[in-house]
Amino acid sequence: MDAPPRWLDPGQQAAWDSFIRMQEKLIGRLSRHIQADSGMSGSDYIVLVSLTERGDGRMRFSELAKRVEWEKSRASHQVTRMAKRGLVAKEECPEDGRGAFVTVTPAGYEAIEAAAPQHVEHVRRLLIDALTPSELSALARISRRVLDHMEKQPD
């Protein structure tokens, strides 16, 4: 027999609802600003950030999909669109015939370098400036704790 659902109490429900609304509104606004400022989609931006944070701008396709929390088909379509626009390139993996690498192109580096200053200003205006240093520290601790907890849970 299945266990009954563990419903959220009113305080838990309020915390969940507020978190979801904030996260959706923040991501939505940042995505619209990226599009308006640079012509890139939010998905373009997250892929380029993920790749350029690495010293060589190169990542296995499967690692990229996992890092951005996308299904492989979504990641494949996104990378294909970006490759057609010259922002990234796909390379075969010599050690693994089924594997592939995604690499930032010079145009991709130019695009992220142009978009990043505007993006960080929007992040600062919409999130950072709303919180005290103590609240930011708490947000970072809470976020890290939830991320660590999720890593221990089955997918």
From TrEMBL:
Protein name according to UniProt: MarR family regulatory protein
InterPro entries attached to this UniProt entry: HTH_MarR-typ, MarR/SlyA-like, WH-like_DNA-bd_sf, WH_DNA-bd_sf
BP GO annotations: response to stress
Coiled-coil regions listed in the entry: none
HTH marR-type domain residues: 1-148
Domain of life the protein comes from: Bacteria
PANTHER family: MARR FAMILY REGULATORY PROTEIN, TRANSCRIPTIONAL REGULATOR, MARR FAMILY
GO function terms (MF aspect): DNA-binding transcription factor activity
Protein species of origin: Streptomyces xiamenensis
One Pfam family recorded for the sequence: MarR_2
